[in-house]
Amino acid sequence: MFGVGDSDQRHHVVVFPLMAQGHMLPMIDLARMLAKRGLAVSIVTTPLNASRIRSILDRAAASGHRMQILEIEFPCMEAGLPEGCENLDSLPSTHLLMNFFEATKMLRDPFEKLIRQTKNPLCIISDTFLPWTAEAAQALGIPRLAFHTSNCFSQCCWHSLYVHQPQKRVGSDTEPFVLPGLSDEITVTKAQLPEHSKENIAWIVSGLGKVLEEMQKADAQSYGTVVNSFHELEPRYVDYYINVMGRKAWPIGPVSLYNRDQADKAERGMKASIDERVCLSWLDSQKQGSVLYVCFGSISHFNPAQLVEIALGLEASRRPFIWVVKGDAQQVDQWLPEGFEERVQGRGMIIRGWAPQLLILSHAATGGFLTHCGWNSVLEGLSVGLPLAAWPMFAEQPLNARLVVDVLKTGVEISKDDPNGLVRKEEIHRALCEVMSNSEMRDRAMKVGEMAGKAVEEGGSSHLSLSLLIEELVSYNNRKQ
Ligand code: UDP
């Protein structure tokens, strides 16, 4: 452990992600970016999550970077969670979501104790979903920065909804309304807002509503916000976030572009369920820009009827595809249409479990991405210049879809109008064909990808933003002493 008497002169930063893939992955990328800039970095996480990321830290150590894991026991039993349920991706039911958040709150005392034993950190970069770290940081006398796994755009949309309440002036859940105060005309419906789109889990949302409120409060009290985005992607929304919402913000992404070599791309998050060489040689055998990548993140699941529609939509598209299925869906024999695998043989690959997403997205054969619009996935697709078929599921994902479809115009949205609540194969087919054949959309996506690459290069906006953040923290620390 980087102890108090540590003779190493490097400044020390503590990074604490929420235990969920969509949070740990970008924050570990951030931790590596900080270590590359010469800082010593401690990542706080639980034993099972630590075992998932150990190889990443070993590789960082081999490159001379100073990183360590600070382990903290996760109180599964005390919070009513099954043993070993230390990550949101192993939650057996969404009904246990609030238990998971309760468990994270119980980490406060052990967290404070742990940080007191380490070399005095410059700051704590905490996941915004761990709002209690604001009070812990205050008790420790260390500045807290909130890390957002979303963009400024969705924060601005929430702000507009909160301040102007346009949702209260519409007659039905499907009546469109414009979000006031934003620089683009962003139209949404109440049905697209989380508490309406998931009526069956409304009680969870009310619990989550409290967490969201605590997050807002904690973020407002914090030193500032680190955002996995880049200025050129959403300049007006970065400005709104800073000037209208009054927050200090450092857009330092896309952090995924920091994964340059094959091992980093292949083992990001956890070991892939497919041998990366098999995956790469299959991609090598496909034409440039021809393959559709279909993946819905780490926690979204579909029922068998919906899975069948996806399968038939992919089959009808007549394009090569890689489709990632998770959870119960991995038992493909139980739902895959008769003869499907034979019919798509050679042009379709199903990955059961964890896919090496960055490796697939950055391969030249990949030409489009059907995504649930989790921000990491959206940004990972955009940063390698891919057009997206947007199928948002929950949280801020419908807003991410608006950014892609309405503002950037680099994607097409899957319509969810079917009265049975299913997205039919015809609609999936339509969206996939559009995304793979619209050359103007493809050109725009390519330009976004080029901008993203430049942002993280030396002299680019995100590179500079990270330098400014480090300088500011160091000088804040010097003034304190
Ligand atoms: N991911 C991956 N392989 C998979 C599924 C997801 O590498 O099979 C990664 C993906 O690259 C992204 C993260 O997991 O970085 C998922 O985050 P996102 O915000 O897209 O969705 P969430 O899982 O939070 O819904």
TrEMBL record:
<dbReference type="InterPro" id="IPR035595">
    <property type="entry name" value="UDP_glycos_trans_CS"/>
</dbReference>
<keyword id="KW-0808">Transferase</keyword>
<comment type="similarity">
    <text>Belongs to the UDP-glycosyltransferase family.</text>
</comment>
<dbReference type="InterPro" id="IPR058980">
    <property type="entry name" value="Glyco_transf_N"/>
</dbReference>
<protein>
    <recommendedName>
        <fullName>Glycosyltransferase</fullName>
        <ecNumber>2.4.1.-</ecNumber>
    </recommendedName>
</protein>
<dbReference type="Pfam" id="PF26168">
    <property type="entry name" value="Glyco_transf_N"/>
</dbReference>
<keyword id="KW-0328">Glycosyltransferase</keyword>
<feature type="domain" description="Glycosyltransferase N-terminal">
    <location>
        <begin position="13"/>
        <end position="255"/>
    </location>
</feature>
<dbReference type="GO" id="GO:0035251">
    <property type="term" value="F:UDP-glucosyltransferase activity"/>
</dbReference>
<dbReference type="Pfam" id="PF00201">
    <property type="entry name" value="UDPGT"/>
</dbReference>
<dbReference type="InterPro" id="IPR002213">
    <property type="entry name" value="UDP_glucos_trans"/>
</dbReference>
